[in-house]
Every structure is written in C-alpha cells, then in structure tokens.
Amino acid sequence: MLNLSKSSQVKTEANAQEAVHCKLPAGIHRWLHTLLSSLPFKLRINFWNQDSYVFGAEIRETLPQLSLHIGHPGVLRSLILSQDPLVLIDGYLHGLINIEGNLEALIPLIQTHPHIVIKPLQSLQLWVEAYTLPQLPFNLKAMPLKDGQQIHSRDRDKAAIQHHYDLGNLFYQQWLDPLIVYSCAHFEHPEMSLEAAQAAKLDLICRKLKLSPGETLLDIGCGWGALLRWAVQHYGVRGYGITLSQEQLVYNQQQIAQEQLANRLTVELLDYRDLPQQPTFDKIVSVGMVEHVGIKNYPTYFQAALQALKPGGLFLNHGISSSDICNGSSVGERFINRFIFPNGELAQLSTMLSVAEQTGWEIVDVDAWRPHYALTLRHWAENFEQAFDQVASMLGERKARLWHLYLIGCALAFENDYERVYQTLLRSKTDKTWNLPLSRMGWLS
Fold this sequence. Notes:
By secondary structure, this protein is of the alpha/beta class. It has helices at 6-20, 26-36, 73-82, 86-93, 106-112, 120-132, 154-165, 169-173, 194-208, 226-235, 246-258, 298-308, 331-340, 349-359, 370-386, 388-395, 397-415, 441-444, and strands at residues 42-47, 51-56, 66-70, 97-101, 216-220, 238-243, 265-269, 281-287, 309-322, 361-368, 419-428. The chain has a seven-stranded mixed beta sheet, sandwiched between helices. The longest helix is centred in the C-terminal third of the chain and has 19 residues, at 397-415. The chain starts with 5 loop residues before the first helix and ends with a helix.
C-alpha cells in the first residue's frame, strides 16, 4: 500500500476529482486504435469509468477475451510521455490497473508491441494531449533496479539471488515438485508427471557424470539440494554444494540433519568465485546457475570450475541460452529483470561454448532440452494456478499474478524457440587420455 504524506494525500484527492471528469482525448484514442487493431483477440479497455472501447478482433458479437480497467488518466499520461510499456506493470502493482480475463492473452500483446511506437506526425499531438491529462502524485515511470553496485559484483549477485530465491521455501514448495527442483525436468513422454520427470533428470545427470561411490561431487548453485542428495543416496558420492540463498541454505541444513547425511554432504553459502583454486572435486555440476553469471564473467566462471576439478574429471553445465543475441532491452527481458529475476543474463550457446573452449575445456557432449523446459513450465504454471490462494497470501495477489504471467511467458518462450536450454558435458583439455564411453548410449546405460 502506498504511504503518502498529508500534502500528498490532499494532492491525490484533488487529482482524483479531476480524473473523474477527464475524457479520453481523441488523438490518444486514434493512436490506441491503430496500435491495437491487429490484436488476435478482443481487448476492452475502460478508462477511469469515463470511456470504454473495444480493440482487436473484428467479430464484435463475442465478448472480449481480456478487459483492462485503467483507474487514473495519469497512467496513460506516464505511458505516453515515457514510451515505456512497463509503466503498465507498475500501474497494476499500484492498484491503478485491474485485469479481467485470461492473463496469457497479454503475452502476444507484449510480443506484438514490444515498444511504444509514436509516428512523428502523431508525436506532438499525443505529447500535448498526454501532458494535459491529470498527473499522478507519484512517479510511475518504470526504472531498472539500482543499488549503486557494479552489475555482477559479488554483493549485487548475492542481493539478486536472494531477491529471487529468498521469497520463502514454502512459496516454492507450493508449485514445484516434492523435491523442490527449480530447473528443467526430463520427460520420457508428454504424459509423464512432473515429479517423475524431475527424478529422471536427476538420475540422468548422475549417469552423464559417470558418478562412482567415493567420488566427490561439487554442485555450483545447488538450490534446495535435490541433486546432491540424489547423488549421495543413489550413487554413493560425497557431496558439496554452494548457494547464495540464505533460505536454500537453511533448507539444505534441515534436510541434511533429517536424513542423517552430515558425514557425506555439506552445503555452504559461497560465491563460485571463492571456490578452491586447486583440484579438489572428481566431478562438478551446475544446473540453472550460469544464467546468473553474466557474459563478461563467463571466463571467470569456467576457470573457477576448471581449477577445482581433478584430472580426469567431468563438468556438466546445464543452462538456458537465447536463440538470438540479447542485450537486455526487450520488454520481456526488462520485465523479468525488474519484477522477477534481477540481473539474469542469457547468451547464445555458441558464445558460452566459445568461452569454455578458450578457458581450457573440451566439449564432450551437447544435449538440447528445449521441449522439456516448455513442458516443465506448463506444469509449474498449472501448479501455481491451483495454489494461487496460498501463494497470493505470501506475495500479495498482484505480485502473485505477475509470477503466474512470468511462468506462462517463459513457457511460450521455449515453445516458440525464443529461449533454449542445453546440457553440456565438458572435460579439461589437459586430459589427453579418453576415459569416457565412445557413444552417448554409454552414458545412458
């Protein structure tokens, strides 16, 4: 809830009275009609209870698939003057926009209109009309999160991880599988359950790494520890995990005590840049962590793993990549970075593998999992919807709806090949003797 001073409250009340009698300017209406006429669905927008228009689909007899209620003209003013669609998200979180209908319909809207485009001949009229609309008593222009720290510094990375993962273990338990695996599952067939597909993923990783009893396994960014516990209990290894999430650390410590694994498994709060700089582990794995590293830090990341790996060992790196070059400027990227997942950064697989090779790794195997992540995300979105009342009680209803939209949007991104995910198996170039199976089937047996 907004905390306004007395003077701000007076201004808000006067502003609200002004908004009651404000009509939607004709030039803004024409611009919206042009912008939204090609929508593949019907969109009804109510402007602060003064005007209501339908945009999009031509069949007027059917009901709109989506309805937006903009509660104050200052939202539209801020949108046009800033030319930033994320203003709408800020307006929603402030309670100035209400949505009725299928949230998934918003995804093609964002994809169709990634930027607010105003033609030169329209710009002056729109600017004047927007400027004359009543102003909000606070700034609604969406700005990136800033903390005065260099991006991907140790402190900023830790803050970003805790922003995303420390929403509470109970929050993630509401919609993930029972093991709390927050990464792509592996489906042997489309009807496979999420729980079974996550267990299949954990076992497949262990087999790819050729884990043997007595070996030491490092998990960089171990999450809630499911993979480590699986490897310890099913393959007899000694596990060591690192995370920057305080909530994940607490959960891991509880599970280690409960399952009496203290002599075989350790999890610590540690940055990957502080890993041992000498050969320490027989095998290393990293699942869904490289997205947090940042492209400029790829050399440091791959070097840290290489230094910590014993001769003859393997490193399995599992991470999301982009199908095209990303620079963080798209609406989708900025939405995720601002509201859900700060400081995430994706690169094309070729970029990641080039850095790995330059760092001293030999690429052994590359496995594409894109359809598996689309299925995983659909399961998460469905689970989230079923547990919506519970998660809304933790996050608040509006933030919970943004999370649901995030999961649906990510599912569509993988389904439409905007994003991809790969498991890459690496070994040190200094290991001249081939000590691995001659074919992929050798890992899967």
